[in-house]
Amino acid sequence: MNIMWFLPTQGDGHYLGTAIGGRETTFSYIKQIAIAVDELGYSGVLIPTGLFCEDPWTVAAAVAPLTNRLRFLVAVRPGIMQPTVAARMAATVDRISGGRLDVNVVSGGSPPELAADGVFATHDERYQLTGEFIDIWCRLLAGETVTMKGKHLEVRDARLLFPAVQRPHPRLFNGGSSAASHSFTAEKCDVYMTWGEPPRMAEEKIRDVQRRAAAYGRKLQVGMRLHVVVRETESKAWEAADDLIKYLDDETIARAQAAFAAQDSVGQQRMTSLHGGRRDQLVVSPNLWAGVGLVRGGAGTAIVGDPKTVAARLVEYQQIGVDTFILSGYPHLEEAYRFAELVFPLLPLKPPESQVAIGRDGGNSLREPVGEVIAHVAFPGR
C-alpha cells in the first residue's frame, strides 16, 4: 500500500472547532510538514483546495524543490479554472517537481462556496463540464493541438509549448459517491478516491466504480482519505480522540451540520448520516470514529487504536481494494511522526519509486530512491 499525508493549508491545531490550541498556517510550518513526511517515507501529500485554503498550486511549486521523493496531489477546478490554463500549470509543476505531480479533479460539492467563485451549475451539470474540461486537459498534455466545441467549453488551436515530464499526463484522481461521479471516474480517471466509510459501505462503492470502469476495459486504483488517532495503547488512543472534541459545544456542532446540509455532495451526505450530528453515535464501525465529522466537512472519520489495531484496520480496507491511503492527524506535524514511527513497521508498504528530476542543464536525470534507506534507518528490522 501507499501511505500519503495531508498538508493543512487551511489551519491546524490540537483540538477541533475551537481557537484553543490553534496553530497559524504559515509557509514555515507547511514547509516543516512537507520536509518531515518526505524524510519519514510517506509517498505523497494531498494539498487541499477551497475558499479557506492557501492556493494549492502555489504551495506545491514552493515546497517541491525542498523535497526529494514526495508526490503532490493538487486540485484542478473545472468551472473555476480554464482547461488550457490548468494544463500549463500542471506541466509547469510537473517539471519543477521532476515528475512528482498527481492531479485531483474537484468538481465541487458546496453551492455557497461555488457561488463565491462564480459557479452556479447544478451537480450533474458540473460533471458534464468536468468531462469536457478533462478531455481538453488530457489532449493538451499528450502533446496535441486541440480544437473542440462542447456544451460548456470551447477552445481553438490550443497547445502546450512546454510539456510535462509524465506521459501522457500526470495521474488523475477523483473522489465522489454519486452516480455521475462514478461514471466520470470510471471513464476518465486513474484513481478513485473515497472518504473513510465503514468497510461494507466503502466496498459497495468500489465495486460499482470498478464495474463501470470494466465496461471501458479499464481497472482503477483506489484511494481512501482518513484521519488517524494512534497511541501505544487502545485506551490512550480513545482518550486522545475524545480530547480532540472536548471544546466542542452543541451550538458549534449544529452550525457546522447546517452548513454541511446545504451541500449537494452525496459523499458529504453519507458522511453526515454516519453520526447524525450526535456525540453518542460516533463509533460507526470497529475502531472507526466519526467525531471529526461533527465540525469538519469532507473526510470525517478516523481510525482509532493502538499500532497493531490501526494497521489491521488499514489492511482490512486494502483487502476490499484500497491501495492508497491519504491520512492526517491533529496536529499534522507531530502526528506524521507518530504514525510513521508506530505504524509504518507493521504495514506492507510499497517501495518508493525513483523520481525523474529536471537537471541543471534542463535535461532529465533520475533521483535515487531514498525512502527505503530512510525507512531502514528509522525503523531497524522493518
Describe the 3D structure.
It is globular, with a radius of gyration of 20 Å. Helix 1 packs parallel to helix 12 and helix 5 runs parallel beside helix 6. Strand 10, helix 7 and strand 11 form a beta-alpha-beta unit. The C terminus is likely disordered. It is 40% helix and 19% strand. It has one domain: Luciferase-like domain (TIM Barrel, Alpha-Beta Barrel), CATH 3.20.20. The chain has an eight-stranded parallel barrel with strand order 1-4-5-6-9-10-11-15, surrounded by eight helices. The protein has a two-stranded antiparallel sheet with strand order 2-3. The chain has 13 helices and 17 strands. It is α/β, with parallel strands linked by helices and 382 residues long.
Number of helices: 13
Radius of gyration using CA atoms only: 20 Å
For the largest sheet, list the strands in their spatial order.
1-4-5-6-9-10-11-15
Known CATH architecture:
Alpha-Beta Barrel
What is the helix fraction of residues, given as a range?
40-55%
DSSP E strands, number = 17
Listing every helix as H and every strand as E from the N terminus to the C terminus, the arrangement reads EEEHEHEHEHHEEEHEHEHHHEEEHEHEEH
Mean pLDDT rating: 91
At the fourth CATH level, what is the homologous superfamily?
Luciferase-like domain
Shape: globular
Give the domain tally.
1
Q: Which sheet architecture does the biggest sheet show? A: 8 strands, parallel, barrel
Task: Tell me the structural class.
Answer: alpha/beta
**Stretches with pLDDT under 50, minimum 5 residues:** 354-382
N-to-C CA distance: 15 Å
What is the strand content?
Answer: 15-25%
Keywords: Flavoprotein, FMN, Monooxygenase, Oxidoreductase
Pfam families: Bac_luciferase
EC number: 1.14.14.5
Domain Luciferase-like: 1-324
